[in-house]
Design goal:
With 190 residues, this protein is mostly helical. It has 2 domains: 72 residues; 81 residues, no CATH class. Helix content is 46%, strand content 7%. It has 4 helices and 3 strands. The chain has a 3-stranded mixed sheet, with helices on one face. α1 packs across α2 and α1 packs across α3. The longest helix is centred in the middle third of the chain and has 30 residues. The radius of gyration is 24 Å and the shape is elongated. The protein starts with a helix and ends in a 15-residue tail after the last strand. The N terminus is likely disordered.
C-alpha cells in the first residue's frame, strides 16, 4: 500500500504542476489539491473503510510537507530551473561530441563544430539563455594564447568553440555569456 500511496502522491503532484489555471501559481494549485484530498480522506473516514481513510490522511500529510517545500516556488521559477538544466545538458552533449570526434580523429579537434553534425550531434544544440535570444550559433576562435577563457568572452549568447592546436584551451566549448545563473555563477564558467 505504501507504493500505491507514493504513486498517488506522484500523480497528484504531476496533476497539480500540470494544471493550467490562469491566475494561480503552483503553490495555490497544490494547496487546492491538498484541500481536496484532505476533504476526500475525511469523507472516507465517515464510511466503514477506515484503512483507506488512513492512507488518504498519510497522503494528505505528505502533500502538506510538499506544500511547505514549494513555498516560494512559482511556475516561472520552475520553468527557469528547467531551462537551466536543459542548457547544462546541451553543453554536456556538445562537449561529449567534441571528445568523441577527438578520439576518432586520433587526437585532433574539429576545425569547426559543424563537422560534428550529423555523426556526433544531430544538430548544434540551441542555447536558451534568459538574457539573450534563442541561438544555435557558434563563435569559433582560432590561434589563441593562454589558458584562461575569460578574456575571450564577449557575451554574444552563442556557443564559443576554440580551435587552436597546441593551446591549452584547444577543443574547449563554453557558453559565451557573462550573465550569472541563480547561484551567481557566470554561464561561461560551466
Amino acid at each position: 500500500m505504501k507504493k500505491a500511496g507514493l504513486l498517488i502522491a506522484f500523480f497528484a503532484l504531476a496533476a497539480c504542476a500540470g494544471a493550467q489555471e490562469p491566475g494561480k501559481d503552483l503553490r495555490a494549485r497544490c494547496r487546492a489539491l491538498l484541500d481536496s484530498i484532505t476533504e476526500k480522506a475525511r469523507a472516507i473516514s465517515d464510511t466503514q473503510n477506515m484503512r483507506a481513510a488512513g492512507d488518504m490522511e498519510k497522503l494528505a500529510a505528505a502533500l502538506e510537507t510538499v506544500d511547505k517545500t514549494l513555498a516560494g516556488f512559482t511556475p516561472e521559477s520552475v520553468l527557469s530551473a528547467a531551462r537551466a538544466a536543459a542548457l547544462k545538458r546541451n553543453l554536456a552533449r556538445f562537449r561529449k561530441a567534441v571528445r568523441l570526434f577527438y578520439n576518432a580523429a586520433e587526437g585532433n579537434y574539429p576545425e569547426n563544430p559543424s563537422e560534428l553534425v550529423p555523426d556526433y550531434l544531430e544538430k548544434i544544440p540551441a542555447l536558451e539563455l534568459p538574457e539573450h535570444p534563442l541561438s544555435s550559433g557558434v563563435v569559433v576562435l582560432r590561434d589563441i594564447k593562454g589558458g584562461k577563457i575569460d578574456p575571450y568572452i564577449k557575451d554574444t549568447g552563442k556557443w564559443l568553440y576554440i580551435y587552436s592546436p597546441g593551446a591549452p584551451l584547444d577543443g574547449k566549448v563554453v557558453i559565451d555569456c557573462k550573465h550569472k545563473d541563480k547561484t551567481g555563477k557566470p554561464w561561461f564558467e560551466y
